[in-house]
Amino acid sequence: MSQKNRRFLSLLLIASALGAVALPAQAQSREVVIGYQDMVLPWRYAQETQAVEKATGYKISYRKLASGAEVTRALASGAIQIGEAGSSPFAAALSQGVPIQIFWVADNIHNAEALVARNGSNARALADLKGKKIGIPYVSTSHFHALVALQAAGVNPKDVKILNLRPPEILAAWERGDIDAAFVWDPVLARIKQSGQVLTTSGEIAAKTGKATFDALAVRTDFAKAHDDFLAKFVKVLAEADHRYTSKPAAWTPESAEVKAVAKWSGAEAASVPDSLKLYAFIPPAEQASSQWLGGGKDSVVAKSLAATAQFLQTQGSVQQLLPDYSVGVNDSWVRRAAQ
Description:
Blueprint: H1 3-28, E1 31-36, H2 44-48, H3 51-56, E2 59-64, H4 68-77, E3 82-86, H5 87-95, E4 100-108, E5 113-118, E6 133-136, H6 141-152, E7 161-164, H7 167-176, E8 181-185, H8 188-193, E9 196-201, H9 202-209, E10 214-220, H10 221-226, H11 228-247, H12 257-266, H13 273-278, H14 285-288, H15 301-315, H16 333-339
Parallel strand pairs: 1-2, 1-3, 6-7, 6-8
Antiparallel strand pairs: 3-10, 4-10, 5-8, 5-9
């Protein structure tokens, strides 16, 4: 073989090697890790049917996390690119400088979170919780509303022993009799209701105080800049999953494929899923794009809610600094495109 041919062959081998290195990097750019919780939501069916993968062509890895605080920590570290959490942990994360943008309201919580007193605790009203032990996931929407409810009832939160427990830990502590009450969501909420009394719900607290809570999905800002088309298609999948439920809720029976998927991914019992779904309000893209939710910049409901939540968390020592404008963490561009 001539020297010229050997050089040509060497260049081919080098190019091939570089290609072998570049291909995985290119493939990796079309991968995303999504952190989710045990919430009972219609889009669990999309997870089960791999609807996001089919719509986007991306490789999706789902990571189940135990609390909103864990989700925001994973977003901060880059361990996940998209995360699902409540308005309270997102308000805390934005206040701490985590580079994220809320792009989809998964639900208006309404009565899907509740404060329940265990039978035998002798707590029949919020005022009776003084001196009691309450299990609540810290920096969650439940934590925020528990403190709001206690103060509205004239109970100093310092006079109540709040234990930082994740939902599975709440259930275990409840069954052992270690706590007197808990503020949590399904599937754990459905379980503790069987041996407890609901004292108030997030819907009732919001109606009395004007401080609403919601669950949402947020994306790391750096990922959003590089994957605009993915997020546009992802939001359409989320919207289609919600519409599948809201258009025919009666079809979501314990025996249906949809409910079985929700039960599988959330850890709920299939028999309880239909009633759990009824507690939430699911918002279509056009409404999400309005100032009622994600649209409107600083005046959007989401931005205002984040600001109010962060201010309250600051009074409790959970947040040290506040942002002048929480709309920096809200992006309505993909819901606007989905609404067209």
